[in-house]
Every structure is written in structure tokens, then in C-alpha cells.
Amino acid sequence: MITDDGCELWTSAAGAGEPILCCHGGPGLWDMFGTLDLGPGFRLIRWDQRGAGRSEPRGPYTLERMVADVDAVREWHGLDRVAVLGHSWGAHLGLLYALARPERVSALVYVSGVGLGHGWHAEFKRNFERALGERHARWAELSAADHDEGRELAVLQWTADFAADGERHAEAMATPWFPVNYEANAALSEEMRTVPEETLIEACRALTVPTLIVDGMADNRPRWAVDSLEQALPSVTRVRLPGVGHVPWLEAPDAFRAAVADFLGDSAEA
Asked: What is the mean pLDDT of the chain?
């Protein structure tokens, strides 16, 4: 598909049920929802964000542009309103889209997001280092290297995102492999840091889109960081999955599927 500014984006749809527009994590990564199974009642709409994966490697890499791209994907698939499911950075992108275009979002599923503020980084760093243990030295070596060891670095980093069997899950996430867009990651991360938490809290207080927050309680990213979002939203459900890390549909597929299906069913009836 082609956006209004001429950027070519990769997108696909599978299934014949209720459409769900999926926003992947990153920034600068690609769609990894190939293993997501919500059952036969749903049609998964997937896409690679601009500059990543199978999409065209061009900016601008701004929050406003990324939100516009979400809307372009919705429109290209012929949807007036759609449920949006976002993971990690994609959870924040889905939230920003719902805030910008609430009339286009029937429901929001906010998976493993990091909330509205920025004070969680120090605790995350400590948790990450503890999860990697003796492998942290290799991660630090790869992070500082001038040569491209992107896949090994990513697999090692993603291993820490799981409560169990992290190496197998991380290898699956890195297959197929695409270059990480560090320019997009840096630009979008920096812009997110410029938006005050209170500004987002005020905006969320007026958001009537039904929202499901899904937390893996063994996520290295502290889940208290999401509390202010939960408290600000007028229509919110929160599901906490014990013993589950950052990618809950891989570690607890049945529980994740049930949580999302129950919520979307309730949202459709409301």
C-alpha cells in the first residue's frame, strides 16, 4: 500500500472474522505477530511500520506521521472502525491513534506497554541486567561494537524478555530477520520523551474507547509504569498474567487469547 506522502508499506490480512489492526513493537522493528493466534473469530491486519521490515526505508520518523500511517492502513483495508492491538511501543502507538482518531477505534488492546511517563527506565535496566546474568557482558560487547552484529545482539536482548525458554522464543522472533532501523528508534524515542506524562493523562481522561491493558507480571519493564494510564482511562479493563514476560501470546497463548476474545466480545455488546 502507498501512504499519502508516497511511502510504500507492507501489510497483510488473514482470517475472516472481526478485524484487528495490529501495531508491532520497536520503534524500528517489524511485524512479529505471525505467531499470534486469537482464534477463528478474528481477522488479523498486520503491517511493517515505515522504515522497518518489508516497508520502504524512508521517514519522516515522527509520532504524527506514525499515527497517520495507522490511519492509512485502516483506510486501505476498507475499515470504518476497527479494534487496535498494540504491543510494547506499538501499544503506545495504538493509544496515540485512539487519542487522535477515537471515532475510528472500536476498542484498544494495550499489550506490554510502558505507560505514559519515563521513570521506569532505571528499574528496567536493573531487571534486564539481572535477567541476562553472565550473558550481559556479551550483550555490552555487541552493543559497543562498530561492526553489525544486529541479529545476535537482538536475540540476546530479547532472551531477557521471557520468563522461561527465552532463547527459543527470541530466535523465533528474529526469524525472518530484517535490519533494525536505529534512526527511527532514536527519533521516535526522543520525541516520546518530550511529551509530559500529565499531558497524556489529561488526554486519556477524555478517551471513551474501551481499553484492555494486558500485563505479563514477569516483564522486565515495571508494570507500575502503566498505573497512571489505567487510572486516567474512563473505560478500562486490566488483565495481569503471572509468570509471563514481555510477549504474552508466546508464553501464555491460551490465557492471552481468552483475555482478548472476552474483552472484544464484551466491547462489541456494549
From this structure: 95
pTM of the model as a whole: 0.96
What is the rounded average pLDDT of the residues 178-189? 95
Report d(CA 1, CA 230) in Å as an integer: 34
Mean pLDDT of 19-35: 96
Cell of 32: 512479529
- β pairing state of 105-111 and 82-87: parallel
173 has a pLDDT exceeding 70: yes
What is the distance between the alpha carbons of residues 242 and 255, in angstroms, rounded to a whole number? 10
Predicted local distance difference test score (pLDDT) of residue 145: 82
Cα separation, 257 vs 248, whole angstroms = 10
Q: Are 163 and 216 in contact (CB under 8 A)?
A: yes
Ranges of H-type helices in 88-178 = 89-100, 121-132, 136-144, 150-159, 166-173
Q: Shortest CA distance to 9 belongs to which of 75, 103, 99?
A: 75
C-alpha cell at 72: 492509512
Residue 268 has pLDDT above 80, yes or no: no
- The angle that helices 150-159 and 166-173 make with each other, rounded to 10 degrees, is 140
Contact 270, 237 (CB under 8 A): no
Residue type, 51: G
